[in-house]
Specification:
With 199 residues, this protein is mainly beta. It is 5% helix and 28% strand.
């Protein structure tokens, strides 16, 4: 809203100032069903974002955090709820079941969206979450505990055309800190079990 004020010239008799208020043109609001937290019409072509970190934690501990999907709201910004909706077949190598489908609810204030992902776990090494038309890149031969590897119909996950999230963990070999102020360097030395490093 713009407001323009015109003040009178000084005179013996002061008159009330004239105020002109310009009203903006009314905006046409989309119905609630057409508003989206992430509208597919505004998305750019396929993008890839990659980040790598070296952390002082054990590979297995980090993997357990990643697969603990119901705990996501406690540390992921704007994640309001997360639940595992189905599990894999029993994994004979680990004697357990892994998440297979999960639903995340994200939002801020009055904005609220949910989407479903298919989860594929290569135990303690890789986890991939696929939404929309995305497919896992882990070879099927490495996923015997997942019998059904297929993309859902578009109606099941309308929020994303395609979204692939990939977590890959590996032990990080390093050389001990040299006498100088230099940082530890990558090397062939085995990591000290009391000081694990994971990339």
């Amino acid at each position: 809203m713009k407001a323009t004020t015109t003040l009178p010239r000084l005179s013996s008799t002061l008159s009330k100032p004239k105020i002109c208020i310009r009203h903006p043109r009314p905006q046409k609001l989309l119905p609630p069903t057409q508003c989206s937290f992430l509208s597919s019409s505004t998305l750019t072509p396929l993008q890839t974002l990659t980040a790598s970190r070296i952390l002082p934690y054990r590979q297995s501990d980090l993997y357990n955090i990643i697969t603990d999907i119901p705990s996501y709201p406690s540390f992921l910004p704007y994640c309001k709820s997360a639940q595992i909706t189905s599990h894999s077949s029993p994994d004979p190598s680990q004697n357990k079941q892994w998440p297979h489908t999960a639903t995340l609810n994200v939002g801020w204030g009055a904005i609220d969206e949910s989407f479903t992902s298919r989860i594929y776990c290569l135990p303690y090494h890789t986890l991939e979450a696929c939404a929309g038309s995305a497919s896992p890149t882990i070879p099927k031969s490495n996923l015997p505990h997942y019998q059904n590897i297929s993309a859902p119909s578009e109606e099941e996950t309308p929020l994303f055309t395609s979204l692939l999230t990939r977590w890959k963990l590996s032990e990080f070999p390093f050389k001990p800190l040299p006498p100088s102020d230099q940082s530890p360097q990558e090397g062939d030395a085995e990591a000290n079990p009391s000081h694990p490093r994971t990339e």
